[in-house]
Amino acid sequence: MSLYDGVDLRLNVPHSARMYDYFLGGFTNFAADREAAGRALAVLPWVRSAARANRAFVHRSTRVLAEAGLDQFLDIGTGIPTSPNLHEIAQAVNPRARIVYVDNDPIVLSHAQALLTGAREGRTAYVEADLADPAALLAAPSLRDAIDLARPVALSLNAVLHFIPDGPGAPDGSGARRAHAIVDHLKAALAPGSALVISHLTADLAPEEIARVTGIYHSAGTPLQARTHQELAGFLAGWTVLAPGLVPVPRWRPADPDDIAVTDVEASGYAAVAVKP
Fold this sequence. Notes:
Strand content: 5-15%
Largest sheet: 8 strands, mixed
Order of helices and strands: HHHEHEHEHHEHEHHEEHE
C-alpha cells in the first residue's frame, strides 16, 4: 500500500509546502512543484539559502525555549517533515516535551502520520486544521488531548503567515488585517509564560526580487504577502520580545558560522521570539 493511497495530492498544482521541501533538497515534491520552484530560483537564486536559514532558526528557537523550560509546542504550518523536526529538537532537551503539529495539506498529513514519532516519555500529535480558522484549530480534540492550554505553550508560526494575505475573512470581521487578527486570536488563547515564534518573508531588503517571487506564487495559485518590519512588529504587540529582537533570520542568536553564512538579503525574512507577560 502506498503512503498516498486515498489522498488527493493534486499533483498538477504547485503547493508551497512541497516547493519548500524542494528548496531544502527534499524528495517529497512533484513536477508542478519543481517547475514553480525553478521559476522562483530564476528570479531569486538564493531561495535555497533562505529556506535553510529559516530551518536553522526553527532549530535554534526551539532549543532556546526548551532549555528555558517550555515543554509544550504548537507548530502551525508544519510542512513536509524534514529531520531533525521540531519535536526532535525539543525532546532532545526534554524527553517529556509535548508537540502538536498542524497543517492542512493532505501530503503533509500522510507523512506526519508516518514520520512524526516522538520520545516515549513525551507526546507528538498531528492536527489537520487551517490557520485561517484559529477557533476551530484550537478546539480540535486531538490538540486539546495532547497539550494543556492552561499552561505555557510555545506557538511556532514559522514561514507561514506570509501565506495569509490581508483582505476579507478576518476572524474579527474587519478584513483589513486578517493575519494580525488570526495571531491575536491565538495569542489570547495562550497562558502567561507562553512564547510566540515567528519568521516571515519581507521585501524590505530586496524589494524588486521579492515582488517578482510573490508574482510567481500568485500565478501558481498561492497568495503570498511580504510584510515590512513595522507590520511584523504588530504580531508581537503586548508581549516581551526576547533579544536580539525582530531581526533578519540569520541574526537571531546564531549558534555557529553556518547560521550567519546567509546574508540578510539572501534570507529576505525577519524572525523573532516573544513571551506573554
